[in-house]
Amino acid sequence: LHVASNEALTYYFLHENRGSIAVNEMGILPDYQGYAMHDHWISYYTYLECVHLLCNAHHLRELIYVAEQYGQVWPTKLIQCLLDIKIAVAEAANEGLSSLSVEQLNQFNEQYDEILAQGKAEIPILPVPKIKKRGKSKRHKSHNLHARLVDHKAEVMGFMNDFFLPFDNNLAERDIRMAKLKQKISGCFRTGGGGEVFSKFRSYISTVRKQGLNQFDALIDLFNNEPFIPSVN
Predict the structure, then answer these.
(1) Parallel, antiparallel, or unpaired: how do β-strands 2-5 and 10-13 relate?
(2) pLDDT tens digits for range 131-178
(3) What is the C-alpha R_g of the chain?
């Protein structure tokens, strides 16, 4: 179940595929030119018209895992750095400011880079296998997370540089929660058609709720062939 959403709109799309085939048929990202926050699923990076952002809630979970599983120190330091930035942004926004000070920006940028530079030494180098296989050499599991945080710094730190941008994509996580709740209580659908109907109704109901309208009244309007048409502005 794919979901694309913002504060005013929700769209669910059911497809047997998880990658670009489904996203193309969903018909949003191929022509989308705004900000797209996601969990670094590689298929999203095939869409070049939008500005990509990475969810820091996902990063925090992964950093906690690396710290607890492998005893590396840099993840804990980076967690604190990201949370400090989040607090600083919230405080500045509450004071009516539109950005952090130059000093704060420089300080956080330097701190972020320094933590990752020092953390690189903590990532173990795996021994080269006796029988060399084709492709890249195998890396430690923490390497991919570290490399992502280095290579995609702009996507990670977007919320610091533009107060309009969120820290995470928890909005989409909340939007998908009702579908997961339905799955846990009632189980899965036995046909794709049932799932597609459910997705359409949930898209409508979620959007109506976000627009501040009565959901029951909106359903009555729908069955009277007078569906609510949301504003996209």
Answers:
(1) antiparallel
(2) 666 656 677 889 999 999 999 999 999 999 999 999 999 999 999 998
(3) 21
